Amino acid sequence: MPNLKPSSISASAYSGATRRDFFRVSAAAGLWAGLSRFTPAYAQLPHAGHSARAAPATSPASADAVPVDLVIGKMDFRLGDRIGRAVTVNGSLPAPLLRFRQGQNVELRVTNRLTERTSIHWHGLLLPNAMDGVPGVTFKGIDPGETFVYRFPLRQYGTYWYHSHSGMQEQLGLYGPFIIDPAEPEPFSAVREHTVVLSDWTFSDPMRLLAKLKKQSDFSNLQQRTLGDFIDDISSQGFKRAWADRKEWGRMRMDPTDFADITGANFTYLLNGRPATTPWTGIFKPGERVRLRFINSAATTNFDVRIPGLKMTVVQADGQNVEPVEVEEFRMGAAETYDVIVEPTEDRAYALFAETIDRSGFALGTLAPRADMMPPVPARRKRPLRTMADMGMAEMAMNESAMPKMATREGGMAGMSAAEHAAMSGGKPAPSSPPAMAGMPGMNHGGGTPPAAPGGHAGMAGMSEPGEMKNPFGPANSMVAMSPMSRAHEPGTGLGEDGRRVLVYRDLIALDARPASPPEREIILNVTGNMERFIWGFDGKKFSESEPIPLRLGERVRLTFINHTMMEHPLHLHGMFMELENGAAGLAPLKHTVTVKPGEQISVLLTADAPGHWAFHCHLAYHMDAGMFRVFSVV
Q1: How far is CA 577 from the centre of its chain?
Q2: What does the alpha-carbon distance between residue 71 and residue 608 come to, in Å, rounded to a whole number?
Q3: CA distance 161 to 3
Q4: Positive or negative, the Cα torsion across 183, 165, 503, 506?
Q5: Which terminus of the chain is less hemmed in, N or C, by CB atoms within 10 Å?
Q6: Residue 496: which pLDDT band, with cuts at 50, 70 and 90?
Q7: Mean pLDDT score of the chain, rounded to an integer?
Q8: Which residues contact 508 (CB under 8 A, 6 or more apart)?
Q9: What is the mean pLDDT of residues 548-567?
Q10: Count of Cβ atoms closer than 10 Å to residue 470 Cβ
Q11: Considering the entire predicted model, what is its pTM?
């Protein structure tokens, strides 16, 4: 169960800070006159953080938290000399930090001052279905001028967040942190803490960006390969191999630089609502243990996070306690959260550096003993290129040594046997070709006979000519992963080649064991898309073409995701946690959001213990809007 009761091995409590600290927000009216007036208390510059021994957010003697009023409206938002219109909560961007205590009953009164319908979804929280906040699935939404009251008990603790589930309001600023302090001590300690909210901001109308993606899906990618790159490749690979590589990518009408739908060409990346030009600063005293609660609230950006000069000990993932693991960098899919502890001993500033996975931009913050200290900004790394593993041909990539060796938690190398891959993919190898009926609930799907590899460039062996490719998903899907397999041991394309210790899903081991009961059936969901037409879905179907997936209340199922696209997809399930099958058996970590790598098959176990209709979707907002959305119906 997800952090429903504290671990018995707890050593020191983190009881939070005073209510005054956490519910202070900027009161602004009319045109916004300064960034400091626009940001909530936790994002002010500089920020001293909160003591791990401060008083609880509300009285522990009371089971009911003080009601909180949240007013959603629009305000001008300035970055430098540019002004845009933001969707705000109580006049702030990001939205105010909401902090409560496990076991409390909360009342959140949300008033809509927009001219359109709005909503708030409480991301990662276990709550009654009617309180989940998804228009068209759990309620109708909040009409202009209306107040909707969310009431639910806090059954868990940890780092979570909240955001709009209406249109592109999240992209425009409607997101904020939601922290639940435990009723009893946690199994780790910290003297001070900071909340770090990552996001992407655009001055453009997000719906216009979506329309441009549908017309030209690579319009924002200004890092495509050039003639100069081709000449460099000839020098390093020889003409024949370099030409064959270009020819094959052209034949497939794909681009190895394709990592993000919208890039730094159109986005400004923010950390606690601040751009890299005027970064947020969190204060520490040398020698302190500092807890950093990282939340990726970006609409459509995955980040690679590091603090040069400091190692980070990951203690929670998606709000759930994990066995501490020391890393130097981790990748955050959109909507994921990671809690880390750092111990800076030097009297100097450190950079909180969140680089986009396509290297087109970054969010920046500072961790420093004093507000006037600034660290050097890390050099941006060269943009990576997609590999055969990203095309669903991992075996071929490993045979060609195209995949870099990465250090693992155990200190070994990341090369894995087929048996190990099978153990992390639901106990059986990935199907070598996707079944035509994959994704139908209740069906056990077996793999077919692998297709013969065609001739041509050795690096592209296994990829059929467009006219010959067996594609059971129709025109809404443009490629088929021929040999998908678990990539839970990999940090992700573009990471691990510089010697840094990078977090991988295989590192995540839950602190508390759970009964490892077997699933009653398997549901395969094929993650599909047509990049040129910007159509995204499951099993080749958009949400508008699909039916709810039925689950019996109390049923235990295996959900297997097979990613047939060249992009990472952070898949989020509402109302329930998924047990990630990463080889940890009875200590499988609980996740509300699982990022599926390109060409990957990965599985989770799910106990359908929450009745109602629950949204399941890719948390890249433009993918979700384009169709990558389903509903699980638990009855």
Answers
A1: 15
A2: 34
A3: 16
A4: positive
A5: C
A6: confident
A7: 80
A8: 314, 317, 322, 325, 580, 582, 584, 589
A9: 95
A10: 12
A11: 0.80
**Taking a C-beta distance cutoff of 8 angstroms, is the pair 150, 327 a contact?**
no
Q: What tokens appear for 240 in the block? A: 């024949």
Q: What is the mean pLDDT of residues 468-495?
A: 76
How far is Cα 596 from Cα 582, in angstroms, rounded to an integer? 12
User: H/E element holding 247?
Assistant: helix 239-252
Return d(Cα 615, Cα 624) in angstroms, integer: 11
Q: What are 60's two structure tokens?
A: 């522990």
User: What does the alpha-carbon distance between residue 541 and residue 520 come to, in Å, rounded to a whole number?
Assistant: 26
Pair 144, 117: CB distance under 8 Å: yes
Euclidean distance between CA atoms 31 and 15, whole angstroms: 38
Nearest alpha-carbon partner for 572 in 296, 175, 260, 192:
296
Of 339, 289, 293, 315, give the one whose Cα is nearest residue 7. Answer: 315
Say what percent of the chain tops pLDDT 70: 71
Phi, psi of 97 (to 5 degrees): -75, 125
Buried b (16+ CB within 10 A) or exposed e, 156-172: bbbbbbbbbbbbbbbbb
What is the per-residue burial (b if ≥16 Cβ within 10 Å, else e) of 397-413?
bbeeeebbebbbbeeee
Cα-based torsion angle of the residue sequence 108, 109, 111, 116 in order, rounded to the nearest 10 degrees: 50
Token pair of 474 as six digits: 């129709």
pLDDT score recorded for residue 239: 78
pLDDT tens profile 255-304: 666 767 888 789 999 999 999 999 999 999 999 999 999 999 999 999 99
Write out the DSSP string of 383-407: PP---TGGGTBHHHHHHTT-SPP-B
> Please, are residues 54 and 136 in contact by the beta-carbon 8 Å criterion?
no
Tens-digit pLDDT profile for residues 193-250: 999 999 999 999 999 999 998 877 665 665 665 666 657 767 777 777 766 766 666 6
Any bridge partners for residue 329, and if so which? 306, 502
d(CA 118, CA 112): 7
Strand partners, 178: 98, 160
- Asked, as a colleague might, if the bond just before 46 is cis with ω within 30 of 0, I would say yes
